[in-house]
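Worked example (supplementary).
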Amino acid sequence: MKLYSLSILYKGATKANLLKAAYDLSSFSFFQRSSVQEFMTFTSALIVERTSQGSRASVKEQEYLCHVYVRNDNLGAVVIADTEYPQRVCFTLLDKVLEEFSRQVDSIDWPSGNPETINYKALDIHLSKYQNPREADAMSKVQAELDETKIILHNTMESLLERGEKLDDLVAKSEHLGNQSKAFYKTARKQNSCCEIM
Amino acid sequence: MVKRRKVKETFTLTGDSYSVVLEKLALKRMLNFNAPPLKNTTAEPVWKVLIYDRFGQDIISPLLSVKELRDMGITLHLLLHSDRDPIPDVPAVYFVMPTEENIDRICQDLRNQLYESYYLNFISAISRSKLEDIASAALAANAVSQVTKVFDQYLNFITLEDDMFILCHQNKELISYHAINRADIQDTDMEAIMDTIVDSLFCFFVTLGAVPIIRCPRGNAAEMVAVVNTVELESKLRENLRDARNSLFTGDNMAAGQFSFQRPLFVLADRNVDMATPLHHTWTYQALIHDVLDFHLNRVMMEEGAGAEPSPAGARPKKKSRKSYDLTAADKFWQKHKGSPFPEVAESVQEELDTYRAQEDEVKRLKSIMGLEGEDEGAISMLSDNTAKLTSAVSSLPELLEKKRLIDLHTNVATAVLDHIKSRKLDVYFEYEEKLMSKSTLDKSLLDIISDPDAGTPEDKMRLFLIYYITAQQAPSESDLEQYKKALLDAGCDLSPLNYIKQWKAFTKMAATPANYGNSGVKPMGLFSRVMNTGSQFVMEGVKNLVLKQHNLPVTRILDNLMEMKSHPETDDYRYFDPKMLRGSERYNITPLISAIVFVVGGGNYIEYQNLVDYTKSKQGKKVVYGCSELFNAAQFIKQLSQLGQK
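After joint prediction of all chains, the assembly is encoded as:
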């Protein structure tokens, strides 16, 4: 079981703003890493944009599960994991990280911040520690608070989109994706398969 | 004074010598003390000793036979790191990599005064500091005058065919598909791999005497190789401009002159663009030999004497002997049939055997006639006629003997291949995979083949399944996948390659879909008829006589697009590098290109090579050379995939 990325974003009025992110790309080969990272950022941002305030969701895409929690103050976090990793532990992690972040980083910086300007260093450590889910010592605490029926489950990325909206367009417009990643996606799309890079 | 000279190529090109026989010429010149070979010389070659390391051995052995070495005066050839006695009156030609170990040993040889004179040839360029080490050792041993020449040969690649080369055989795991694609690789590892690959490619272009136009895809190892290679070529060209004496790509080089109008196209492809072909069961002779027998550096190793002969009670069982056969350029049958479909090969060996027997009978007949004492009037008058015939028969005996040797060779090899085909039902695999790769309708279920205990080894089944998975438009459903996995496990397969292929498929460009394997179509022509007669060496009963329609595999298709300047989404985005343009690259190539080198980073195989050869044959006047970072057969490739799939 594995965690691939952990990101903190601010849910703005029209788009999500990436504040900080940590990645574990060690299971991807050398030339895949930069594209994979870009797509994880893109996906995390899209998910936060399409998740309402005060809700939690899990989005399944191919071999990956993206878990998101957007708080009522519009601070959100996304963790991308494999399908084996226990869902409950992911939400524990998201809660914990958001709590810590909001204590260390002033809310005035959230709408306009970016990974370079935001001063929060613990994300990499959390990601690495939680690679082993038994680290989630506060599991029992979360069990009490978390009502699983309230976690929305999406079976694909596409179910996040609005009617008439196309993933292709979003990819093309995204500022998180470099030209190469966009090119990858374009070719993958042509062959009738979903964006399988994630 | 130790002189360091860089090699200048001054060979003449014959009509079809856009080929990697250039390496052979370079080697021959080196063995002639780096003087151009004198034509039509009746003088005896100077006797000399050849000292090589394993790299040098791998380069020389596919190109020069022991006989050819002897013709050039090599009386003795020895490994560098072996115990060697002094031979004080004989010159020694060294052909080794400039590694620290090798340099130390050379210095030791100098100190021990082993030979009369030393011609030091380094496979790739030696560094200045190592050169100084040799100079000091020579000085200390008072042997300076004996170090006659030191050369950078720029021959760090292995030529297997006129139109095929690989980078190395020793230590190939350092630049293998696994090494390049493994997840835990560090930046420094990748740098080292790139340096190794580019060093060899650079040697290749120096030997060829041409600066290519480079095309590569984006975002993978092939691109990285292209970039590093361009930088290397660019910087060496700039050096050349500054120091014309030491230039590697001089203008007076006839080869360079030839290529100034039509520079070769150098296409870099990444193994990941086509993962099905290296797993494919094949049907052509050379590729089959590489797949099912122990074949490398043009040598087949086989076990013989494994017949089911009953041994008398108490007698020791007949020991299996290992035989090795060299498949060379001089073997006409091999040159003609190495790319032929196997049934054709079997038929042709049979034909050769029949022809040989007829010739042998003719000789026997003439010999028996000559045995007559002359009582017969008719016999005497026939005599003079038959003397002529016998003379010609006798003089053709060496030819006949050689022919017999080759027929035996190919009979043995083809029989061994046929045994594999029959016991594993390789024709079934071949046909099914062709259908998968060309998206034709399938007449059997995949599950049936996997579950059939008589068809193929577990590895064969895994290969088939991986090809199915790779070429499938839609990934199989969870339940289907579970069914397949169970069947594969029951058949004894190792599923770890699948883990890697799943990840590969999820990431990679889906451009290499089944449609792009071309419309191959395999036409079965019914079961064998002719070769099924009792006199045949090859009982092809039950083996389908499949004929292949020409189709382009992905790498061939990429080359075709680029060489013919066709627009295609797969190659439109390819990068363009011209090392001669020192500032930026503008394209000015409007004419279609006539020569190309296709190099697959991450490994290649004979199926891909054969496909390119067939393609080139269909294009008048075009020359294509195939190269790859390593050569593997399906078994070796699957092993690497398995390593990559271990979690």
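Two points are worth noting when inspecting this output. Residues 160-274+553-646 of chain B form a domain with the Rossmann fold fold (CATH 3.40.50.1910). The longest helix of chain B spans residues 342-370.
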